[in-house]
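Per reviewer request, we include the raw input and output of the structure prediction for the construct analysed in the revised manuscript.
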Amino acid sequence: MKRLIFFVLFFMMCISAQTSANASTTIKAYIDGQSQIILQGNTAQWYHILHDAPGRNGGNDYATFINGTGWFPWPNPGTYNSCECYSNVYNAVSPPIPSSSTKFCLKVIFARESVEIKEQPTAQNNYRLIIEFNDDRTVGAD
């Protein structure tokens, strides 16, 4: 029987000693393969690359949690296996990703394989923060 592994991560703006503001977001997702979460302003959207889409495995549909709020990003039944497709958009990311070049740090609380920031928000990428979850080396979700 397959068990799903979840990735829990916490990311925040990297801040200098002179800055008093501190913003953070926590994401929890069930991953079996390779996917990216794209954060822009107050939105989040999965781009799924390899194996089962986040939250999809064995006919089950598990929520992605952003700051404790559940979101079911896939509109139809199925695994969305290696589809290279986008999920529905979540419109309640808070605090929002700023519309300025901002450096984010990532603290992985739990991951079976790798989680990394692929793109920091810049004017060139329209201020998108892209985080990649990669669980494609280990067979199945455990």
